[in-house]
Structure formats: C-alpha cells, structure tokens
Specification:
Length: about 425
C-alpha cells in the first residue's frame, strides 16, 4: 500500500507530465549529482594546525553558537550527521589547514598524504568523494597579505611548494577513492589601500601558478581550479587574483575556473557568466554561497540567485562539466543545521531546474514566441515541486520536510552541548 507521500508524488508526476516534464528522469538525474560539503562550516575555519586559531587572510566568522568541533574526529562526526540528513551521495571539501599532524611540527610545504589519511579513510568508509584546497592564509608567511604574489622570492617559493604538495595529496586521495579530486586555488593577496603598481604582483602570481602547475598530473586523479575575488578584509582596494586575471589564466592554461557566488559585486550574478566561460575553459567549479553586503558567506537559500545558477547549468547541458561545492560559514546558528539547510537548498534549486521543459522553452524562443516562453515559465512556479522533493528525500532515506531538524536538535543535546 502506498504512503501519502507516494500518493501525492503520483499526482504531482501527472501534473508535470501534462507539460511534457518527466519527473522520474529528474529524480534519477538529481540522485547522481554530488555536492561538495565544505569542512570549514563545522569549526569556523579554524583548522587543526593551530587549534582554535583565527583564520585571517580576509576571512572572518561571526557568532558564538556552542558546540564547535575541536578535533578532526568531532568534525567528522558532525559532517556525518549533516550528510545523513541530505539526500544523495556527496563529497568532502577539505582545506590543507585541516591536516592531522599528530602533535608534530610540519610545514605546509612538507605536507603529504600521511597528514590527511584519516580524512581519506573516512571518505572511503562513507562512500564520499574528496576535494582539496591549499591554505594560503592563517600562517606567519601570509601575515602581510601576500603569498604567491609576494615580493620575496623565498616566500613565493614556500607557497609554490605548498601548492605542489596539495596537488599530490589530492591525486593520491583520488587514487585511493577511485574518484577524481578538484584542487581549488584561492589566495588572499592584495592591498588595503590604492597600489602604485598593479602589474608586478600579477606578473609574479602568474609565474608562481605556472610553477605550481608545472608537474604533470593525471586529470583522472586531479583537476586544478583557480578562484577570483572582488575584495576582502585587508584587500579592499586591490586583489591580485581578480576575475579578469583568473579568467585569462584559466583560458590560456586550460584550468577549471571557480566562480564563487559571493566573490562579485552584490548586484552581479554568476549565472550569466557560466555559458560564456564554458566556451573557453574545460570545466567549471561553482562555489554556491550567499553574499549579503560583500563576500559574507551566508547560508545558501532557495532564492532567485541560487535558482538562476542551477537553471543555467541545467539549461546549457553543463552538468557533466560542472563541479558544485558549498562555501559559507555561520557560527550564529547551529553549524550542522547550516550545512543541512544550505545543502538541501542547493539540491532543491537543482531539482527545480531539472523539472523545467528546457527543450520546449528553447523551441518557443527560437520561433520568436516569447509570449508562450514567459507564460510557461510562470506556470511552472505553481507546480507541486515540493511534493517531488519530498519523494526524493523518501527514496534517499532521509527525513522528509522539517523532520530533519528534530535529529539536529537531538544531536545538539546529546553531543554539541557537552563540548566546552
């Protein structure tokens, strides 16, 4: 006997079918799309090199919600709880500052897979993919705001070696897991006030990146991505790695371009950039975030900007050339709830995009029938999408509706509240 959720889904499926939309195909496709869950939401970007240390490098986490993860085991436990409440099979996105050093002093340039084996083993057990990020902040050699674009050749050399080490770590993790890793390069280099020389730091950055990427890497194991930023704390007037810089670099070196939804002007949508940059780069990495006044990295909502990003990826047929990760950190609310809310909203936006009759919309547009295009897009807004989402959750054996929140509250009482 079918459940009320199943019965409601059958009715919704018929409604969508009436417009030529195959809800079953949408659910099947959604189940195969992984979201890369960022570890740094669970401990406020602290990492484990300097327990409890502030992130720095233009990053700031606000809020003092109790229960922050203090160890790698605690963070893995929190991630596991969050992932158990998100439908689908996903990936871990890890920063190099989350190395497990075993009490030893190890420089970032000397990191090896040994310092991340605990994370790789955990991913293998959980069936997760693995993505990686060199950490170009929260370090004495980054305190003046420059790393790969630094004037000092010795400082640049240190950070080049760190980048090289991270690519090797990602490739080995991918080999063990049998899933390609994406290694994303973001650096905070820039000036607080107006610079006299904008050219030289960018020349140094390009040369440093070339040195980082000089070692050939099997693309089945590791894919390199580069990420721009408009400005940050301490780099309000000038960021070396601007969008134009990294767009040119990614095109000429055929690297993945990372578009972060919070790294552009608040009125600028990255959705419009997707079809343009994919004319010239092999693939994209999307960091789905929510900037309010700047790159404030608020929890992802099911809002128009998020929907527009996913619509563009689906409408353009870019799913197979796009990796999707989340990037936000909020310590003002339950950290696990933040992961769950953001992940489920990103997936909901994807499902809404998959439930569009894209071919039909393109036909109307090609025929110049913009009236029918607009009418159909508006009718889609009142179709029973929520019922299809509930069915997806049911099939993936995760709580339907707000039932997931009861599990978060229970975990908060049993685990988080006991952390000092």
């Amino acid at each position: 006997m079918s459940t009320p959720t199943e019965q409601a889904y059958q009715l919704a499926r018929e409604r969508y079918s009436g417009l030529g939309i195959d809800a079953e195909a949408a659910l099947a496709r959604l189940a195969r799309i992984p979201i890369s869950l960022h570890c740094w939401q669970g401990d406020d970007v602290g990492g484990f090199e300097n327990a409890g240390g502030a992130p720095g490098g233009g990053l700031a986490v606000t809020g003092n919600q109790p229960g922050k993860a203090r160890t790698a085991d605690e963070l893995r436990s929190d991630l596991a709880k969050a992932l158990s409440l998100v439908p689908g099979r996903h990936r871990l996105n890890l920063h190099a500052s989350y190395a497990e050093l075993g009490g030893k002093k190890v420089g970032r340039a000397d990191y090896t897979i040994e310092h991340f084996q605990g994370w790789v083993d955990w991913c293998k057990e959980a069936g997760l993919g693995f993505d990686f990020n060199p950490t170009y902040f929260a370090h004495p050699l980054a305190e003046d705001g420059f790393t790969l674009a630094h004037r000092d050749e010795g400082v640049r050399r240190f950070w080049i070696e760190h980048g090289r080490a991270c690519r090797r770590i990602a490739a080995e993790a991918a080999r063990q897991l049998g899933k390609t890793a994406v290694t994303n390069f973001w650096i905070p280099d820039g000036y607080k006030d107006l610079p006299a020389d904008r050219k030289a730091p960018r020349e140094r950055l390009a040369a440093s990146l070339d040195a980082v990427f000089a070692e050939p890497m099997d693309p089945k194991l590791n894919l390199d991505a580069v990420e721009s930023k408009l400005f940050g704390i301490g780099s309000e007037s000038y960021v070396v790695g601007s969008h134009e810089f990294y767009l040119g670099y990614a095109v000429t070196r055929q690297k993945l371009l990372c578009l972060d939804a919070g790294h552009f002007h608040p009125t600028e949508s990255i959705a419009d950039k997707i079809s343009s940059v994919l004319q010239f780069v092999p693939a994209l990495l999307l960091h789905v975030s929510r900037g309010v006044r700047w790159d404030s990295d608020h929890v992802v909502l099911l809002d128009d900007p998020t929907r527009a990003i996913m619509e563009e990826v689906v409408r353009g047929g870019f799913l197979d050339r796009t990796s999707i990760g989340l990037d936000f950190f909020d310590a003002s609310i339950n950290r696990i709830a933040a992961w769950v809310i953001g992940s489920r909203n990103a997936l909901k936006a994807l499902l809404l995009a998959l439930l569009e009759p894209s071919a039909q919309l393109r036909e109307f547009e090609a025929a110049g029938d913009f009236t029918r295009r607009l009418a159909l897009l508006e009718e889609l807004k009142t179709l029973p999408f929520g019922v299809v989402w509930d069915e997806h959750c049911r099939r993936q054996s995760v709580p339907v509706g707000t039932a997931w929140f009861d599990e978060v509250r229970s975990y908060e009482r049993a685990v988080l509240s006991k952390r000092a």
